[in-house]
Amino acid sequence: MNPEELHVLIEEYRDGTITPADARRLADAIRADAATAARARKALEFAGFAAQAFEADDDASFARSFGERLEAERAGADFVTAFEKRVRSTARSRRIGTPISSPVPFLVAAGILIAILGLVMSRVGRTTPVVEQVRHEAPLPPPEEPREEPPKPDPQPEPPAPAPKPESPKIVEAPAPPPAPKPEEPKTVPPPPELEKPKVEPTQVVRVVAVAKLDRVDGDVRVDGKPAKAGQDLVAENALATGPTKGRAGVTLADGTRFTLEADGAVPSIVKGPKGVRVTLTQGTLGADVAKQAPDQPLTIVTPHGEARVLGTVFRLIVDQASTRLEVREGKVRLTREAKSVDVSAGQVATAGAGVPLAPRSLSPDEIVLQAPQAKLTGSEWTLIRDGKALTGVVLEAGQAPFKVVDHVETRPAYATFTFFAPADKEYRIWLRATSLEKGDPWNRDMVTLEPTRAVLSQKSPFFGAAPTTAYVFTGVAVTPGYTWLGGHGEEAKAEAPPLTVKFAETGWQNLRVYVGHPWVRVDTIWLSATQKTRPSAKQLPPTTEK
After folding, report:
1. In a shared domain, residues 228 and 348
2. For position 408, what pLDDT does the model report?
3. Which domain holds residue 164?
4. Which residue from 91, 168, 256, 351 has the highest number of Cβ atoms inside 10 Å of its Cβ?
């Protein structure tokens, strides 16, 4: 059993959450290996815990009673059996409703485990209680000498009555000389190998020292649920999370690797082991600039849908409910899902998720397809719901909003955000596939607002007057009863106008936000195309969408 597994089992034992199977593993490991027993004993030396288990007056009395237990049951099997029985009975009591907070079963189990540790250590010559018993046997000869002297002074018959009192000081004084030579035995014979091993425990040290540093904190950032500070060290057990709106955190590893966790992100753990660093990302967007890694110690980022193994690169991972999207800017990353892997090179993107083909595609394509499951929701105005008529089976549905269509988007706290990589040297036409479920006046159920950031639009939306913005109100969603492609407008009885186009200010990661115009509008797909010059028919699919 390696030190990391031993550490986890001892922590579970302390917390009272250890299972019977793990309890048996812990007991067997302690009994089989003296070094493991030494580490476990050291980890369980917390003030008064074992003494309380046997309700002793103090640690010294517990040690003496503990020594007697060892002498009575030197084989150790009964301790193990009792320990396992305690664990099983504790587990059963939990299932039938015994409060977990009750300390009694765990205190008793603590005493039994300490007994097992003492038994194993006794085999290598470290049982102090046994040494004390030998000392009690050594002072027995002195009382025999005074029995030979009584013939000289007869008036000593009285001491026999208070014999316990004179004997107790003699027993205390007699052992005093022996302790000097006896303690030297554990220091000279068995301890040297035992003392050296606990000191050389690199894995255990890694568990308590920092594996990363939180070098940047913007907005709401928390570590283990508590507000975080820039410069704070992170250990393997720390859980890092950013707030849903403006939270942002920067993390640096010892080798110079840098991570950026965007808003609404969660990294439960960063663990450094013999096979490299392993980062767990359960949600949100994580950007990474990875220093060159050793071939046998790659950086691995694990998500609910797969894992990315890196040897040195610049990339970005976006995790939502349905998939994990990997976008590589420099180097190469291997993306794995369900035993299938693909290598994603610089300038490519790949997605891991149920029903999504695991294949790399160009990051600077002629076609960029943004679908509802990729959106990150801020606020409560948008909801992801299932719709069998959507291209992916999931759409964004607009709810009630306290804002009007003409309100400037800078004041809007709720929106859906699509993040993607796009070049600055291409002009894309924006096609929106949407529908409306609202009945009644079509003029009150056919609008939705899109805002590409850091970009230039070919047209200015008439709804915002002279306000400086790249937001544009798409109209005509309710013109047809089903899903329709719109290029900026779709009103009836109007000539087809040129579609809205966008050109980004610089190559890199882009954001496109979607705001509620009218409630009950459903947004299926946003298609940025450098080739589709006319409005697609209602049934037309983007080139990268499978039927």
Report:
1. yes
2. 87
3. 139-174
4. 351
